[in-house]
């Protein structure tokens, strides 16, 4: 009897590894004979760099940078000397652990601090840098990162502009400094947490603005400024991607600015890269059940989040898959069909929405343990029937 636990984080409560451990405790309590394979997952957003570093045996180098509002901060450069590989995470510098999601903050915030974090990796002379992109409270379209690497924007009077949403429509011209050869030679791979364009029908960068602090009335204004910024950037750097291309909406449009200074940028689906690194698909061989999940199941889950990648691999190997989620927003039957889930289990019911964070965490620990026990029962019954 064998089960694979491939959870992503339950944002604000548990890391992916903690969820796996809590469910595993319940399984072991009910049936210690069941073999449990831990494959904590991530999608490129918060927690991705730590997970990759653990899987690849990387060392952590703490460096001083600044956050999305220019305040002093510390962050990790994960480093593997044998491969000359550095792994960095945007959420660590630009995420909600650094600031509250407010509209005022959104219009002033930028990605310059993450650019500085990248700069801190280059003295190591990496051959590759993996950028985990997602979970940011920024929407400067990567202007700040590009600025850290010598891209300057000027207004009609020749004044240099601070990179931020507030200043986008003031841009008249760009100037770019030449990068050192060792920076140009480094392979930059971006691992995005969502396969969404910056603009266009369906899920896009605009779909994430409210959770970053934007009011409904400001969304058309932000869209207009992003379009203006792209038009100016495209005039100066014709090779940058279109706004409606895949991944351009991830991390508040970070790949747009990045592509101006790193033309050979490679962009990938974060969850697929991570699944490959942790050998997720091979772990499914001979298993009785795969269990995945994250804090919230909604329409955005279908756009390259960890659950969708686990789902694709499970369907390919024709394995039974169960999903465990903090909450579900949308049609459960549709989600089950699209993700190939045999069952959806939730921790939080609608009548529990008024609970405090500590109450949710305490109750969720118990619920995850109980879910583990229930899963053990299902696996044991299936095993008994097959014999």
TrEMBL record:
Record's SUPFAM superfamilies? Glycerate kinase I
- Which Pfam families does the record associate with it? Gly_kinase (PF02595)
Q: Read off the lineage from the record.
A: Bacteria, Pseudomonadati, Bdellovibrionota, Oligoflexia, Silvanigrellales
UniProt entry keywords in alphabetical sequence: Kinase, Transferase
State the family named in the UniProt similarity comment for this chain: Belongs to the glycerate kinase type-1 family.
- What's this protein's name? Glycerate kinase
Q: Name one molecular function that GO assigns to this entry.
A: glycerate kinase activity
Any one GO biological process: organic acid phosphorylation
């Amino acid at each position: 009897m064998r089960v694979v636990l491939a959870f992503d984080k339950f944002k604000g409560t548990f890391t992916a590894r903690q969820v796996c451990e809590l469910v595993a405790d319940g399984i072991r309590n009910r049936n210690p004979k069941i073999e449990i394979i831990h494959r904590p997952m991530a999608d490129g957003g918060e927690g991705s760099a730590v997970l990759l570093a653990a899987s690849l045996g990387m060392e952590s180098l703490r460096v001083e940078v600044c956050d999305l509002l220019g305040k002093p901060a510390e962050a990790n450069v994960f480093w593997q000397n044998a491969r000359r590989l550095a792994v960095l995470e945007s959420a660590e510098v630009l995420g909600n652990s650094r600031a509250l999601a407010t509209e005022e903050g959104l219009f002033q915030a930028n990605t310059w601090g993450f650019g500085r974090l990248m700069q801190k990796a280059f003295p190591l002379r990496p051959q590759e840098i993996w950028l985990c992109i997602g979970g940011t409270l920024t929407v400067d379209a990567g202007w700040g990162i590009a600025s850290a690497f010598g891209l300057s924007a000027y207004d009609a009077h020749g004044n240099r502009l601070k990179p931020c949403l507030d200043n986008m429509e003031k841009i008249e011209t760009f100037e770019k400094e030449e990068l050192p050869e060792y920076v140009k030679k480094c392979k930059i791979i971006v691992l995005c947490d969502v396969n969404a364009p910056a603009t266009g029908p369906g899920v896009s960068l605009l779909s994430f603005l409210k959770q970053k602090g934007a009011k409904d009335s400001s969304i058309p204004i932000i869209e207009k400024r992003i379009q203006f910024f792209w038009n100016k950037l495209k005039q100066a750097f014709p090779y940058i991607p279109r706004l409606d291309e895949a991944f351009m909406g991830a991390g508040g449009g970070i790949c747009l600015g990045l592509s101006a200074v790193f033309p050979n940028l490679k962009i990938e689906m974060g969850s697929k890269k991570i699944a490959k690194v942790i050998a997720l698909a091979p772990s499914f061989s001979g298993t009785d059940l795969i269990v995945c999940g994250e804090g919230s199941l909604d329409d955005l889950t279908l756009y390259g989040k960890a659950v969708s990648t686990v789902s694709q691999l499970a369907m390919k190997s024709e394995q039974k898959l169960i999903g465990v989620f903090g909450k579900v927003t949308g049609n459960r039957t549709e989600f089950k069909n699209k993700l190939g889930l045999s069952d959806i289990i939730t921790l939080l019911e609608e009548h529990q929405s008024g609970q405090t964070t500590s109450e949710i965490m305490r109750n969720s620990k118990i619920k995850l343990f109980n879910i583990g026990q229930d899963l053990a029962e299902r696996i044991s019954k299936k095993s008994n029937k097959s014999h």
